[in-house]
Design goal:
This is Nucleoporin 43. This protein is mainly beta. The chain is built from 3 helices and 23 strands.
């Protein structure tokens, strides 16, 4: 498989995130973080695909991700976001929210802040299912239906929206500085404004009569009113939060989770570029908003789509516990040159039980 590197890591990987680089920098990211799940000892790890003072072992090749450092994580890593270049925020199945500090000089990780049982039921922990960062603010959501607002420089909780949802909240993203979007297990997209004192959403959007769970949400980087969601049934929906309560574009990327799983595996065997059916279907869904799917977020394709591609490579016998790296190049796809530089991209692996990247 030309252009793809595989790294056996001995753990199930649930999340991958690139370390952000300055918007004015021409340098491409070469550091990424991973979180694991369903292991005896879960961890958060920092990996490098550049020099960064990490030596290459005899049995490894140039371009292979090199482990820089790792730290034990209590519970499954259900979500993972960089707060800045030095700090990483994780959402745990135990309900905890943790900020890890990456010390570049010693190449070590340490816990700089911990909100234990941030999400909980009356008698038990509730998984924290999603986190989004707009430094120094951190917003988390959970299966308990709560929305929590933290500041990285404060120990206490800045705000809690109790009973924000009667069902599990699956994902969250910022719409604007004071507004967030959440999606839940009954197919609703909700808009929340932190300037409002109450605990009610300012807007609720949903498909009429449709209660299919939504698992991910993201907004257009330039047109903030354009929002995309991905559902459990494989439906990709494009919404305009300014107009109406219904999506203006629907795309059935695949009819079942297992279908796209097999398409991805088969395509990898065919020395994949970005034109095979599984990924291409997902990219095409945003054509109605004036561009390819890469326009939804200015990130590498796989990471950008996050949970919208329901791939379960982590449980496939050949790719279990493996990080795949794919070299994306401009001539292999139709994405704009500005949003698709040549680089190595980690392909997140997870089981179907845990959706989202």
């Amino acid at each position: 498989m030309e252009g793809i590197n595989a790294k056996y890591v001995s753990k199930k990987i649930s999340k991958t995130r690139w370390r952000p680089v300055s918007s004015s920098s021409l340098q491409q990211p070469d550091i990424f973080a991973t979180g694991s799940w369903d292991n005896e000892d879960n961890s958060i790890s920092i990996w490098s695909i550049g020099e960064n003072g990490v030596s290459i072992m005899d049995d490894e090749f140039e371009g292979d991700p090199q482990l820089v450092c790792e730290y034990k994580h209590n519970g499954d890593v259900l979500d993972l976001q960089f707060l800045d270049q030095d700090r990483i925020v994780t959402a745990s199945s135990t309900g905890a929210v943790t900020i890890f500090q990456h010390h570049h000089n010693s190449q070590t990780l340490s816990v700089s802040q911990l909100w234990d049982r941030a999400h909980h039921y009356p008698c038990d922990n509730a998984p924290c299912t999603g986190v989004v960062c707009n430094s120094p603010e951190i917003v988390t959501v959970g299966e308990d239906g709560r929305i929590m607002l933290f500041r990285a420089d404060q120990e206490g909780v800045l705000r809690t929206i109790e009973k924000a949802d009667s069902s599990a909240i699956h994902a969250v993203t910022f719409l604007r500085t004071t507004e967030i979007l959440t999606v839940n297990s009954i197919g609703q997209l909700k808009l929340w404004d932190f300037r409002q004192p109450g605990n009610e959403p300012s807007q609720i959007l949903s498909l009429t009569g449709d209660r299919v769970p939504l698992h991910c949400v993201d907004r257009h980087p330039n047109q903030q009113h354009i929002v995309a969601t991905g559902g459990q049934d494989g439906m990709l929906c494009i919404w305009d939060v300014r107009q109406g309560n219904m999506p203006f574009s629907l795309m059935e990327a695949h009819s079942a989770e297992s279908k796209i799983f097999m398409e991805v595996v088969n395509s990898l065997k065919r020395q994949v570029d970005l034109q095979f059916k599984g990924f291409n279907s997902c990219f095409c869904c945003a054509h109605s908003v004036g561009g390819p799917f890469s326009s939804i977020k200015p990130r590498p394709p796989v990471l950008m789509l996050r949970g919208w591609i329901t791939v379960a490579l982590g449980d496939f016998f050949k790719f279990r516990h493996t990080i795949l790296l794919k070299r994306w190049t401009e001539h292999k796809h139709n994405f704009s040159q500005r949003n698709s530089p040549s680089r190595w991209e980690p392909v997140p692996h997870q089981c179907l039980a845990h959706w989202g990247l």
